[in-house]
Design goal:
Layout: E1 4-10, E2 31-36, E3 39-43, H1 49-55, E4 62-66, H2 72-75, E5 90-95, H3 104-111, E6 127-132, E7 137-142, E8 149-152, E9 168-177, E10 185-192, E11 195-200, H4 211-217, E12 222-226, H5 231-235, H6 249-258, E13 263-267, H7 275-288, E14 292-294, E15 300-302
Parallel strand pairs: 3-4, 4-5, 5-6, 11-12, 12-13, 13-14
Antiparallel strand pairs: 1-2, 1-15, 2-3, 7-8, 7-9, 9-10, 10-11
Helix pairs in contact: 6-7
Length: 303
């Protein structure tokens, strides 16, 4: 069977943190790497992606990056991702179109240009290809073919473009989450053979759970789910965090149970949560959903 595994390079939310209270769980913002078959799939380009670039030593590397949304904590590592500057590298990047009409590529260009950064995205030497991705889109990686194909599974004209399953090494499908201010996020499901994992960062629950996400995650071998807040912080006055677009640990665990997933990874830790606080959160989570893992920088998990 092909390799299918997760390595975490960053699982904080909002802003990177450091210091003696943030040693065991780490302080880099969102970046997860999936090894699927022969592919390196990168989920988000938070500050953690910098270390990934330093580790990439192979000749002619190809990176397949799927960005959930373009809030700073999910793309801030991109200008420091050394692979972007390698003329022998190929980077394929997918993400949401801005609701104002701008393409995903234009959103990235806004950040990676002066005066915000001295080197523009087009001055970085890697071969870069950007794609808009949204609800119902599926990216297929075919065996022995470097560049994947993308279809809209909802549109009749694309149904005859679905490749033969025997030709598919892996695929990434997308649902759009609308409960993260102010323009939502992409949630991704990565499938390799008979196994799959779901990446649901920056999502907030609903009454009786997010039924669309329950359906999208159904039966996954691994679910990475936002779990930024404790119940207390979520509802405490004078500044409750309800409506901020992030879930509690209990919300994440309930969705994992409803979706019948095998493993849950708690994700997008609050930057003010110390190692000791996260220890307590982890213990509470296991009482709600026993097969829970808490995200920490450097953690590797087979899928």
């Amino acid at each position: 069977m092909s390799e299918f595994s997760l390595k975490i390079y960053g699982c904080r939310g909002s802003i990177p943190v450091s210091g003696p209270d943030h040693v065991r769980y780490g302080g880099e913002t969102s970046c997860a790497v999936i090894k699927a078959g022969t592919r390196t799939i990168v989920l988000d380009a938070g500050s953690g992606i910098r270390k990934l670039g330093l580790e990439m030593t192979e000749k002619d590397p190809s990176v397949y990056l799927f960005v959930s949304h373009v809030h700073f904590d999910h793309i801030i590592g991109l200008p420091y991702f050394s692979t972007m500057y390698r003329p022998d590298a190929s980077i394929f990047a997918w993400g949401p179109r801005d609701p104002r009409g701008s393409s995903f590529e234009e959103s990235i260009e806004c950040l990676l240009q002066p005066p915000f950064h001295p080197v523009s995205v087009h001055e970085m030497l890697a071969r870069k290809t950007f794609f808009n991705m949204g609800e119902g889109h599926v990216v297929y990686f075919l065996k022995g073919v470097a560049e994947p194909i993308q279809i809209n599974a909802f549109h009749p004209s694309d149904r005859d473009k679905v490749p033969d399953p025997d030709d598919v090494e892996m695929s990434v499908s997308c649902m759009r989450g609308y409960n993260h201010p102010k323009s939502g996020v992409n949630i991704y499901r990565v499938t390799c053979g008979k196994k799959s994992m779901v990446y649901a960062s920056d999502t907030e629950g609903y009454v009786q759970g997010d039924r669309r996400l329950v359906d999208f995650s159904q039966g996954a071998d691994l679910l990475i789910h936002d779990a930024m807040y404790t119940d207390e912080k979520y509802v405490s006055m004078p500044v409750p965090t309800q409506g901020y677009g992030h879930s509690t640990v209990k919300i994440a665990c309930q969705l994992a149970e409803d979706a019948n997933v095998k493993k849950l990874v708690l994700w997008h830790h609050d930057p003010v949560s110390t190692d000791d606080v996260l220890d307590r959160i982890f213990e509470d989570a296991k009482s709600y959903f026993s097969n829970t893992i808490i995200g920490m920088d450097g953690l590797e998990v087979p899928i």
